[in-house]
């Protein structure tokens, strides 16, 4: 039986043209996780307790990618602590458990998937697109039918939850597959990673053909196969790549598309500084709103509905 997202195709290199906008999109940008020992004394003050790092981080950036959920879903009390430590408007992009994508490879994952989706629901408006990342060995040729069924299932069971899929198999880095996702209201992650094709033009073609207004989800990873000695400073500047992505992000925002962008330490060596460098470049094309929030626990009289599932 033929797969709904067609055969493998080459990465498109067509011209990138922004869509017209009714209003400017919102940029949420941050790092992959917020807790790294090498950030102490550089990004965090040396005396900052570990349980106060998220609160400090949330005063600097308006979103974060949480990788801890890849290994174990956070307990309700952990989620509550996270939510109480960040301001309104801050968002978390939680990575799907490896049991779903890497260990069971979508086989008998209904229960784990439901638990993951419930965690995303419990975040309420603090949920950025959940990251469902598949390994390079998960290909269209070997796993495409299960992936298609999984996408159809999510379209039914999680229509209200923001989700994005990242693939690392080249035969899934196609406009046809991205269109398949977008038609089901599931996002696709455009990745900047050494050794991988640039799929941004494919995402753009799929977004235009489906007239979708889903956010653009971007991850700047860099050369994660060549570890740096630490995560303290910019060690391999990527000015050309930052210029490229800043222009793309600015065009997307002008077109009315929201953007979620997450930077990893290997991209340049110290992700917080890279985020600042990226924001500075984007702001050369259009002014970005300041992020100067007041961080504190929510008003006891208000009921946000978060964590009601627990």
Automatic annotation (TrEMBL):
TM spans (from-to): none
Coiled-coil portions: none
Biased composition (Basic and acidic residues): 10-24
Region of interest called Disordered, as start-end residue ranges on this chain: 1-24, 291-310
Protein name, as recorded: DUF72 domain-containing protein
Domain of life where this protein originates: Bacteria
InterPro entries: DUF72, UPF0759_sf
Secretion signal span: none
Pfam family, one: DUF72
């Amino acid at each position: 039986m033929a797969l709904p997202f067609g055969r493998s195709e080459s990465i498109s290199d067509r011209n990138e043209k922004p869509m017209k906008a009714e209003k400017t999109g919102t940029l949420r940008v941050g790092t992959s996780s917020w807790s790294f020992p090498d950030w102490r004394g550089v990004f965090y003050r040396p005396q900052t307790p570990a349980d106060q790092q998220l609160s400090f981080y949330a005063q600097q950036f308006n979103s974060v990618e949480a990788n801890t959920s890849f290994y174990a879903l956070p307990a309700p009390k952990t989620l509550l602590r996270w939510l109480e430590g960040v301001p309104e408007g801050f968002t978390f992009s939680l990575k799907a458990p490896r049991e779903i994508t890497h260990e069971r490879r979508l086989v008998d994952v209904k229960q784990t998937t439901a638990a993951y989706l419930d965690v995303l629901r419990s975040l309420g408006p603090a949920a950025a697109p959940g990251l469902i990342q598949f390994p390079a060995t998960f290909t269209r040729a070997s796993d495409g039918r299960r992936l298609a069924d999984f996408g159809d299932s999510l379209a039914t069971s999680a229509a209200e939850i923001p989700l994005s899929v990242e693939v690392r198999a080249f035969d899934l880095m196609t406009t046809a597959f991205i269109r398949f996702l977008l038609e089901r209201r599931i996002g696709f992650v455009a990745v900047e990673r050494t050794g991988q094709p640039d799929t941004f033009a494919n995402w753009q073609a799929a977004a235009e053909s489906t007239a979708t207004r889903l956010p653009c989800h971007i991850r700047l990873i860099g050369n994660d196969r060549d570890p740096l000695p630490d995560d303290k400073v910019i060690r391999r500047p990527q000015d050309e790549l930052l210029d490229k992505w800043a222009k793309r992000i600015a065009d997307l925002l002008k077109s009315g598309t929201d953007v979620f962008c997450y930077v990893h330490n290997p991209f340049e060596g110290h992700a917080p500084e890279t985020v600042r460098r990226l924001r500075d470049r984007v702001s050369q094309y259009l002014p970005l709103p300041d992020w100067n929030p007041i961080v504190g626990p929510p008003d006891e009289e208000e009921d946000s509905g978060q964590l009601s599932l627990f």
